[in-house]
Every structure is written in C-alpha cells, then in structure tokens.
Design brief:
The two termini are 38 Å apart. The strands form 6 sheets. Strands 10, 11, 12, 14, 15, 16 and 19 form a 7-stranded mixed beta sheet that branches. A 4-stranded mixed beta sheet has the order 9-13-18-17, with no helix packed on it. A two-stranded antiparallel ribbon has the order 1-4. The protein is mostly beta strands. It is built from 1 helix and 19 strands.
C-alpha cells in the first residue's frame, strides 16, 4: 500500500498493511530523525492507495465505517477516534432497456463530429437510490468527457421523465459511461437524458447501444 499526507507539510509517511482491512501510516525514519511532527489542533488528510470496495452491499446501509487510531513510537494505542461513515457504494442497475426509436438530436453523420444523443429507457424492476446506470456505445464511438460527462435534458415530450436532475455524476472511458442516479427508478416510468458523443471514424459492424 502507499499513503501520503495531504497538507502543506513535507512529511514523508510509509504505509504498512496489517490486514486486508487495516493499514498503518508510519512517520518515516528520515522524518523522525529530523524531528518532523504532525501539528495538533488542525485538520489533516491521509490518502491511501488503493482501497478495494467490498463485493457485497449491506441491505440496510451500504456505507462502510472508517476509524482512525493513533499510536506512539512503541506502537501503543494513544487515541481512538469515533467511527465515521464512508462513501456510498453504488449498486448496478442490472436490467434496463433502451426504448426503440429514442433517436438523436444535434445529429451529425460526419466521423469525428460531436453529437448529442438522446436516450429513453425503462428498468425491469424497481431500483434503489444511489444506483449506477451503465451505457455502452458501439465500437469506435467515444463519450465526451473531461471532469464529467456532458449531460442535458432530453427532447422527448410525452411520457418521459427527465432524469438529468437525478444524475449526480458521470464518468466515462471510451465507449462506456457510468451514471450515478440518486433517485429510485420505477418500471412503470420511462426515463430520458441526452449525452454528448464523438462519432466513430467508420460505422461499426455491431452498431448497437
């Protein structure tokens, strides 16, 4: 494992993996020899690489709890902070179908051009809030992505719920985009959004979403 102190201090820390659930951030021998310390009374942030999310989610609260202990040089526990809830783990929306004829807007048939693609979809079963919708484009296309995907309201008029206000985040790499949906989705509804794409250079043989 590796760890760093996210602050203005130039203190070097070493990472020691005790178990799969316990890691220690140790002041390096060089820092200790130079009498470098972490000041009290001000907030500090530790950044660990890399943490693997659990394979299964709790049925009640899927946020893991994190707790920090402080030790002295003899590895004796000096203090234990109160546990704090971590980040939400998102469950995949397992079954969703794009509604045929969703169509595109701002369409361009020129390779490499950007286009807004509109999607309407329906889920098979009720999905919990804080779920993830995965959208896969045909080979050769790419989602426009910098710090987030480009998302905007759909152009559908009747029977489609605008999902954009419920999308709290979106990450994309190549042909795959993952959208975090904050609200529960119901199978009786149709949901829609637009997402910005870059056209493929050539029409793929398998041209399906």
């Amino acid at each position: 494992c590796s760890v760093r102190l996210v602050s203005s201090l130039t203190l070097t820390l070493n990472c020691e993996l005790v178990t799969t659930r316990v890691a220690r951030a140790l002041v390096s021998e060089q820092a200790a020899a130079a009498a470098q310390t972490i000041p009290a009374g001000v907030p500090h942030a530790l950044e660990f690489h890399t943490l693997a999310n659990p394979q299964r989610l709790s049925t009640t609260d899927n946020r893991p709890r994190f707790v920090i202990h402080t030790f002295d040089s003899a590895r004796e526990v000096k203090d234990v902070a109160s546990p704090v809830p971590g980040y939400f783990l998102s469950q995949e929306i397992a079954q969703a179908a794009i509604i045929p004829g969703s169509g595109v807007t701002g369409y361009s048939g020129v390779s490499g051009d950007e286009a807004w693609v509109s999607f309407a979809f329906r889920v098979k079963t009720t999905t919990a809030a804080q779920a993830v919708l995965t959208l896969t484009a045909p080979s050769g296309y790419a989602f426009v992505y910098s710090s987030s995907c480009s998302i905007r309201s759909p152009v559908f008029v009747e029977g489609v719920v605008d999902l954009t206000q419920s999308i709290s985040g979106c990450v994309a790499e190549g042909t795959v985009a993952r959208l975090a949906v904050d609200t529960a989705l119901e199978p009786v509804e149709q949901y829609g959004f637009q997402i910005k794409m870059v056209n493929a250079e050539f029409a793929p043989d398998w041209n399906f979403w």
